[in-house]
Amino acid sequence: KTISTLIGFAAIFTWSFLALLSTAAGPIPPFQLATMTFSLGGLVGVASWLFRPDALKSLRQPWQVWALGVAGLCIYHTAYFFAIQSAPPVEASLIAYLWPLLIVVFATFLPGERLRPHHLIGVLLGLAGAIAVITKGGSVGLADGIKPGHLIALFCAFVWSGYSVLSR
User: How far apart are the C-alpha atoms of 37 and 77, rounded to whole Å?
Assistant: First the structure.
């Protein structure tokens, strides 16, 4: 149990650097950047098989699981890299990270689920907080107007939330 918690913390720690490292990568084309990052991650994953031989069994999945996983991860990250390069990174990241709010909404379409008042209040508070941060407490709008990166970041939020809910 402790190792699982540590792995979770490591994942959150590395995930917290996504925007910073994506911005620091500079003008590397988004498809190339996605290829580079997934190649590096894949190599680390393959190397871990030396210490986790049973992990190979988890690769036996139906093709639909593979299609959803590969498409969800690749489309999200490639679009995120486009968004970061096409709009102010802080604004693009805040828009892309609206996915938790969308997960709450999309999850209500799953069997046996429904949107309850406390869910709706949480979504509205989260959206209000994101708007306050993006606008710096001023009027609703983006610093230099809507750029393609803002729309791509919104697409990211829908891709990740859809991927997450469908993965359930």
Answer: 9
Distance of CA 79 to the CA centre of its chain: 10
User: Are 163 and 68 spatial neighbours (Cβ–Cβ below 8 Å)?
Assistant: yes
Handedness of CA 88, 91, 94, 95 (dihedral sign): negative
Structure tokens at 106: 């999309």
Distance CA 42, CA 134 (A): 34
111 contacts 75 by C-beta, under 8 angstroms: no
Question: pLDDT tens for residues 3-33?
Answer: 889 989 998 998 888 889 999 998 999 999 9
pLDDT tens-digit series, residues 60-116: 999 999 999 999 999 999 999 999 999 988 889 988 999 998 998 899 888 888 888
Crossing angle of helices 148-167 and 89-96, rounded to 10°:
30
- The one-character DSSP state at 33 is H
CA 166 to chain centre: 14
Cβ partners under 8 Å of residue 90, min gap 6: 19
Please state the pTM of the whole predicted model.
0.84
Helix axes 148-167, 63-86, angle to 10 degrees: 160
Task: Render 135-147 in DSSP notation, one character per residue.
Answer: HTTSSSS-TT---
